[in-house]
Inverse folding.
C-alpha cells in the first residue's frame, strides 16, 4: 500500500536543539555575566548587540568625518588659518582632496600640508582684493555726498 | 569723505607681491623641480589617487582593499589614472583637480578577490513583535600598488 504521510500516533522530536542554541550563544561568549551562558538571557543581549552594530555602522561615518575635521582644524590653526577659510579656499582653487586624505597628510606629510595651507592663504588674499573692487565711491543717488559752499 | 565703520573692509589690508617678480620666481621654482625630477633625486613618492569612489593616500608596496568587484583577473596589472596629488620629501605636485596622465604613472596588481566577513543587519522594535535579520557578504578586491613614477614635463 502507498503511504504518503506518517501515521497519526508518530510524533517528531526536536533533535538539533543543541546546535540551534549554540548558534546564538557563540555570539555571546565574550559578554559579561550570566548572559554569556544562559540562552534566555543571551538571546536578548545578542539581539540588542546586532541592532546596535547596525546603527553604529551608519554613525561611524559621521563620527570619522567629525574626527577628520577636528584634525584638519588643528593642523590649519598651526599654520595660522581657520578650518572654514582653509577648506573653502582649497575648493575655490580647484583642489578636491577630501577630509580623510587631508587629515592623513596633516599627520604624515607636514610639509605638504604647509604648502596647501599657503595655497589657501594666498587664494584668500586674492579673494579679498577681488571683493574690494576699484576702491572708488559708488554712483548712487542717496550715497552721493552733498557739498555745501 | 568722512571715515565710517564701512569705509575700510573688516579684514586687514593685504598686499600681493609684484606679478613680474612672482612670474620669475615661479619659473625658477618650476625649473628647479624639473631638474630634481629628471635627476631622480627624490626618495619614496606618495600619491593621492581617486579610485573606487574613494580617495587613497598610497605609496609603493602598499595594500589596498576595495569593498566591491573589479572586472580584472587576479594578477592583472592596472594603471590608476585619477591622480590628485604626488609628493616626495622636497616637492609636491598638486593637481587642479587632477594631474596629467603624462606626468604621473601609478601601477597596481590585483592580488585577491574574496568576500567580506558576514555582517549582520538586524532591526528590532520592542513590544511590537518586529524582527528582521539579514546577513550581508560584500565582495572585496585586494590590490598591491607596485610603482609610482613621475616624468619631468612640467611647464
Amino acid at each position: 500500500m502507498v503511504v504518503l504521510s506518517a501515521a497519526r500516533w508518530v510524533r517528531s522530536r526536536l533533535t538539533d536543539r543543541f546546535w540551534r542554541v549554540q548558534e546564538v550563544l557563540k555570539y555571546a561568549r565574550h559578554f559579561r555575566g550570566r548572559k554569556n551562558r544562559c540562552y534566555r538571557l543571551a538571546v536578548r543581549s545578542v539581539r540588542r548587540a546586532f541592532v546596535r552594530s547596525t546603527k553604529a555602522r551608519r554613525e561611524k561615518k559621521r563620527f570619522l568625518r567629525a574626527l577628520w575635521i577636528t584634525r584638519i582644524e588643528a593642523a590649519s590653526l598651526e599654520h595660522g588659518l581657520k578650518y572654514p577659510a582653509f577648506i573653502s579656499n582649497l575648493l575655490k582653487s580647484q583642489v578636491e582632496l577630501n577630509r580623510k586624505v587631508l587629515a592623513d597628510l596633516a599627520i604624515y606629510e607636514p610639509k605638504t600640508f604647509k604648502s596647501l595651507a599657503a595655497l589657501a592663504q594666498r587664494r584668500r588674499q586674492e579673494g579679498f582684493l577681488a571683493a574690494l573692487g576699484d576702491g572708488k565711491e559708488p554712483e548712487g543717488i542717496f550715497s552721493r555726498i552733498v557739498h555745501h559752499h | 569723505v568722512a571715515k565710517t565703520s564701512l569705509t575700510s573692509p573688516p579684514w586687514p589690508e593685504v598686499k600681493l607681491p609684484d606679478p613680474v617678480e612672482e612670474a620669475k620666481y615661479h619659473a625658477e621654482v618650476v625649473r628647479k623641480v624639473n631638474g630634481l625630477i629628471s635627476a631622480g633625486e627624490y626618495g619614496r613618492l606618495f600619491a593621492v589617487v581617486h579610485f573606487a569612489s574613494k580617495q587613497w593616500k598610497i605609496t609603493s608596496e602598499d595594500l589596498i582593499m576595495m569593498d566591491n568587484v573589479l572586472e580584472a583577473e587576479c594578477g592583472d596589472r592596472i594603471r590608476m589614472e585619477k591622480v590628485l596629488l604626488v609628493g616626495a620629501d622636497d616637492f609636491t605636485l598638486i593637481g587642479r583637480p587632477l594631474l596629467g596622465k603624462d606626468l604621473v604613472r601609478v601601477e597596481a596588481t590585483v592580488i585577491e578577490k574574496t568576500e567580506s566577513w558576514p555582517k549582520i543587519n538586524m532591526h528590532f522594535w520592542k513590544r511590537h513583535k518586529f524582527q528582521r535579520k539579514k546577513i550581508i557578504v560584500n565582495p572585496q578586491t585586494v590590490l598591491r600598488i607596485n610603482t609610482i613614477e613621475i616624468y619631468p614635463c612640467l611647464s
Observations:
- The mean pLDDT of chain A is 91.
- Chain A has two domains: 19-58, 62-132.
- Chain A touches chain B through 32 residues (CB under 8 Å).
